[in-house]
## 1
Amino acid sequence: MEPGEQDLRQEIAELKRRVARLEAALPAGSTEETAWVEAQGPPPAPAAKEDLETRIGSRIFNRIGIVAVLIGVAWFLKIAFDNRWLGAVGKVSAGLIAGLGLYAWSERFGRHGYLAFSYSLKAVGAGLLYLSLWAAWSLFHLLSLPAAAAAMILVTAGTGVLAWKRESELLAFYAAIGGYLTPLLLSNGQNHEAPLFSYLLLLNGSALALLAVRPWPRLALGAFLATTTYAIGWYTVYYTE
């Protein structure tokens, strides 16, 4: 064997011994992990944190602008009401349009990831719808009691369906608040026990149906407390032997 070939064999043998020692020193699974990294490529770099200017521009000023617009609209409506620019139909229509507008506007923020703020806008919009319908029935006598009740039930049902589709317990909570406040808004001081408890039965059945597909036990607790409160209140005021 020639001297050069013998030296080459010795170097190869030494390299094999070094590789064996390195593999023995590595923890278990390191070889597989290394191979996986080589096959998949380097892990993605972490997303850069949002800097202060972006956070202020996209969130804080954005929300300040929304509040300013809401205050401006409310101030305009107050001036219009005080100066009698709007009649009864105009006032109710303005409230309904504002409520529906907030509903539609909230979708824009929901698509950009501001879910809690979007749901809050929906709650404000639903509140405007409830109050407008109440005013149309109680103050201006534009709607009959059954028509106002049907419209409020429609608002509650729409919010509940949206909560189910968006899987939002917060939105379901807002829908429940509006639903259980409806009998108070439509109360005329008389005893309507059959419509009252029929409505509560329908509302509680809807809540149970929602609970069957969404694990929201706090919604069941709220429904139970609201129904119990109505039952105690009716018993205290209207029940006789």
Note: The chain has a mean pLDDT of 80.
## 2
Amino acid sequence: MHERVLFVLQSRTNQKFAVAVIYISSMLMNSIDSTVVNVALPTLAREFDVNAAAIEGIIVGYLVSLAVFIPASGWLGDRFGHKRVFLCALLVFTTASALCGFAQSIDQLVFFRVLQGAGGGCLTPVGMALLYRTFPPEERIGVSRILMFATIIGPASGPILGGFMIEHYSWRWIFFINVPVGITALIFGLLCLLDTSERVDDPFDIPGFVLAGVGFAAFMYALSEGASHGWLTPSILISGSVGLVLLILFVWVELHTNRPMVKLQVLGNNLFRSTMTVSYFSTAAFLGTLFVVPLFLQEGMGISPLQSGLTVFPEAIGVVVSTQLVARVYPTIGPRRLMGGGLIWVSMVMAVLSFIPFDGSLWLFRGMMFALGCGMACIFVSNQAAALGTISKADTGRASMLMSVQRQIGAATGVAVLSSILA
């Protein structure tokens, strides 16, 4: 009887609506979490009475955990079903968020952040595959508008939410805030989401998983910590070199096995490869800017974390406004012109930002952040609409995984380069 009621509920629910709701909810949690913790680092260092090196484990542990689990996400979704894997990842992420809020020591908090990364590493690529499998190619521009809420608005909202929670409540609430959203999304997904995945019986590629997980984690560690520790320190040199060698070996292994965990052959698709390249550099520039601007506002101009977040947030408003226009003109103008124009516009905005003095107007900063959001919407909406346009449905999961890997490396590269310049 229970199964019959559940089947009726799922069959009567518009699956496009259901997938969009659960994806936006979970991805907003994931993307906000990636920036909200940065605001809380000074508070956490005082709370646990630890130095900067120890407190960085909260960030590094999460990034390394993401790096380990992202490569396996495509195979997991194809093997066990995208709905099942996505909801399991959501459960892990939500549970880990609650545990982070209850942490009593820095070691506990780092461990629970690693657990969060395990869930987050599967959420993004599996959720994206679920989204693209649900929406046909002619509706991909609509999918891209959905993705904007998670990929751009989330990171911009994190500093505001983090600053507000720390100033008015407690650092623990930056983690607790995920719990009701996660539980609601999980229940909604269990009740309303259909699993339409065509599961495959490919064996798990253990050599590929080990090489990708260890190589990607070591390389990400070097990128994220190189600026603070020094690029020529032994730990960074060894980590970066080992990671690079393992990733090269991983590519060779995956190209010479019959059942690869990561189907690198999709990079032979010219459109997919081109959009991946554009996405890598634009993500590096965008998230690198979001890293530097709050530092400039707080350390250079002397404003509070909450004021800093509110000054950066107009970028998200620019995304919302521009996304509507891009969606309308995309069929006429096409992705190439929109991405090219967006890249030129964003470059001009970043050039203006670099000349704003320490005593400059915050309203000028807000105007530039709004303009930055408008340009980034042109790039990301067009890029995501076109990226999987010529990828087969069977390869969507593996291609989504590669997009997630590229985005993580791009983000780490942007922060690493700008951190080094600052240092």
Note: The mean pLDDT is 78.
